[in-house]
Known about the structure:
The protein is an alpha/beta fold. It is 49% helix and 11% strand. The chain has 14 helices and eight strands. The longest helix is centred in the middle third of the chain and has 27 residues, at 166-192. It is globular. The two termini are 39 Å apart. The protein binds iron/sulfur cluster (SF4). Iron/sulfur cluster is lined by residues 81, 83-84, 107-108, 110-111, 248-249, 305, 334, 337-340.
Amino acid sequence: MQCAESERTFDKYAEIAQDLSLAEVRRWKSEHPGAKAIGYFPVYAPMEIIQACGMLPVGLNGAGDRLDIQYADARFGSFICSIVKTTLEMAMTGHLEPLDGLLFSTICDSARNLCYVLKRNFPHMYLDFLHLPHNPGSPAAVEFLRGEYARLQQQLEELGGCSATPEGLRHAIALYNQNRALLRQLYALRAAAPHLLRTWELYTLMRAGNFVPVETHNQWLREALEELPARTGKPRDSIRVVIEGSFCEQPPLDLIKLMEEAGCYVVDDDFILGRRWFTEDVPLDGEPLTALAESYLNRAVYSSVRHDFRNPRHKALVEKTRRLNGQAVILLIAKFCEPAYFDYVLFKRELEAAGIPHLLLEFEEKAFTFERLRSEVETFVESLLFD
Ligand code: SF4
């Protein structure tokens, strides 16, 4: 792939990722008359179950700075994160019209409230709330979560007038296993050769997958993996950083670009974390919903919205940073994000004990000027480069 052509490809993904009209979802629905599309709020959703019901899972990541808030401010206080407000605003202004339902889960009080505010404002829309287990060590956790998945499946089957068979579920799991494996390969490629794959490119490629069938996304990921090693590019003087804290509301694209321009090689991040939720393939043998539930409990990433006292996330962050030869951690946290700020205290203490430098940056998805953040990142990078 020539460099200019490659740039255009990633620009196309950026357009899809930021398209508030959900044109790709509309296109899919026009090609599949009568089929449903189900939106899911971050962080994690069992996309496999939606897919097995013949529906299109659509990941929602807010509206960034592309929508003025007119209605949401009257329904949420000023101390609520941006993604909650812009998602509500998208609904109130008809931007979510191509979706036939919305799925939420137990990530925080704000997301829970958003689900029920939407329910009140759209009483005829299918809205569901998935209760994810908070005590993964409990012997009842697998059965509990399997029950939640079965309940969701039944609701979707009623909505779509369809039936998800075990074979259909296994097929969907296999497709998403491929998707996660391909993303893992791209993340590994970036960690090994960050000058060949910029973070904004990986991010838009991943985020564009929220709006297209997984088969299409798998094809895009395969093409990227084939073409990227042939790129030419010289390594720059940059520090290797891990980004942590942007698992739900997403930083503006220009802020992600700015980090690299200011001298960071991002070797790992938690952007759009739900697409990479499982660290290994979900097993294809056995009962599919049980396999999904066991994977959620035993083969998943650490996250500030997923409690797992068996695998403390502050220790996991240090371990990951060391494993990837990270020189520093940037805690990139959405304004008013309670789960991220609760964990900040633990992360800070553990990073300091491990001697890993860190920088706290706060963002809002709707921000569009970043001069202060640029100078903070540049100062941080220089302090490490010329230490
Ligand atoms: S950004 Fe944080 S506070 Fe807001 S909905 Fe997401 S997890 Fe909750």
